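Example 3.
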Amino acid sequence: MTRKKLSLLVLSLALSFGALAQNLKVAVAANLQSVIKVLAVDFKSKTGIVVEPIVGSTGNLMAQIKNGAPFDVFLAADMGFAERLFDDGFATDKPTVYATGTLIVCSTQNIDLKNWESLILTSTVKKVAIANTLTAPYGQAAQQALTALGLLTKIDAKMVNAESITQVNTYIVTDVVSVGFTSQSFLHDPGQHKKLYWSIVDPKLYDPIEQGMVILKHAKDANAAAADKFYKYILSPSAKAIFKKYGYQTK
Amino acid sequence: MDWGPIWLTLRLAGITTALLLVFGLPLAYWLSRGKSLIKIIIEAIITMPLVLPPSVLGFYLLVAFSPQHGLGKWLADHFDVQFVFSFKGLVLASVIYSMPFMIGPIKSALQGLPLSLSQASYTLGKSELETFRKVLLPNIRASLLTAIILTFAHTLGEFGVVLMIGGNIPGTTRVASIAIYDAVESMDYASANNYSLVLFAFTFVIVMAVFIFNRRSAKSPLE
Amino acid sequence: MIAIEIEKKMRTYEGHTVLRVNTQIAPGSITKVYGPSGCGKSTLLKVIAGLVSPEKGKIIVDDVVWEDTATKFSLKPQQRKVGFVFQHYALFPNMTVLEHLQYATDDAAWINRLLHFGRLETLVKHKPEYLSGGQQQRLAILRALAIKPRLLLMDEPFSALDMDMRGVIINELKGLIRELKCTALIVSHNPNEVDAITNEELAL
């Protein structure tokens, strides 16, 4: 074989290997930051497919996908944003609920949060962190709960708006806020070593945080098959067991 | 359009620039004389924000001024002052972050003046302060103006640090750059465009006005 | 009387050289300072003016100690009242001719006399960038004289003046120095040019 043909062969082999070895890009809502790692390891051991998570607040990720972000699957923190993707033609099908999240109020200070609704009005609580209510479903849930309790306007001066659940957690952990509204999964975050004090926010105060999943039309050829496998895996019993361990509810 | 973020941004840039001018001039003067090791170290520290990612500065400020421990707690207990999630905090962050833009050009310009100028003034019996005011400053006018504009414009665009320690509080820390980011995030491209246009137009007008005013002596900030 | 005994290390192209001066300057004298290029003439003037510190040495002027490295004492240049004419003029780019002199003194009559002496009356509103080399040098001389110094140090002060102007200036300067009762040291590359004015000499 001539030199030229040999290099062409090597080149095309390399490219095709590249195509095969592409990771599955999964956009995940911020509250899934730690659980996705565990799911990815489990998925890889079962299928050999490597998952590359991209973490952000749900609304952000949706906007990025609409503007051409190269993701294959989207695990949102609600149904609404995921549905909009389907309506606008970016998803292959309507979203399915893969888990339901729980809102908690959390602090690194040893304060009794059982009656957080009244405690939050006192001077013990100086600053309250809430995720961006326009783009983060847990932020929306917190806003709903506070409104239902008539507290929203009363604590307006104490409110600090974080970009995402991740930033809420940062604020909690660096002690710059007295309390933050975050997801229960934060308590199971392996990277988190501080002692946390928390209380579940009455689920009746907010619309259920039904987290929806869609496969994106961006996934083509080999990736489409991988995306499908991942989709089915997330709804499988082994994935559900992992979600449960991290404080989510599954059907 | 909600003009709040724009006014807030202008206030932040204005106060930061004014503070940096007051503290920066003596500091730049001090740095321009001689080259002791401590001066070199301080100059390096001042220049750090130029190369440090804004989120790093933001993160360290967050931790340093957390009201639960250390410096942050001391300030909160004794002065009831909190630097996180407050306008004061943004001013502090901006001052640190924009310092090299004020000090750099001024120090360079002072060093560029011949030593004999100061010496001539001293032989006439003039103190260092009077020499600085009447001989040195007037002869670095162009660089001084450049430093002021750069500092102001740089603060206008500040984002990363504000994102970390601002808390996005309307009327207090929700500056224009954050408002634009938020608007883009929630796909409100109309608002994003409005804010961006205003900032762009404003900055452009300032720079143009300065160049026209200093037609002969203004230097491009790129020089 | 000015007693100067100093040692100053100077950096030269090839390394270091040491300036050593041990002399007495008589009050009211006009001394010409000369020597080969790079031997330290300008440096000596700067040491006397207090703009540069010697490694070792003592300077005593009329029984007042100006410099004593043994006790680490150095009188500030601001307090020495030395009129200094720099080799490259060191004029202030932001000031006009008149502003230069007003910066140095309040005495309006004295300023007018100096302007007449320097032939710069018609150029009072000009900034240095609009003056010729000779005019700039004359301004530098006027500025040094404006403070009515007790000691006048001049570093190549006539180099840019044309022959005629030089003669006039040197002649009138002699009179002014006598009037001010000051002592002068003049550095010149060209020792002959200043012979008309100097009555002492110092070779380095």
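The radius of gyration of chain B is 20 Å. Chain B has eleven helices and no strands.
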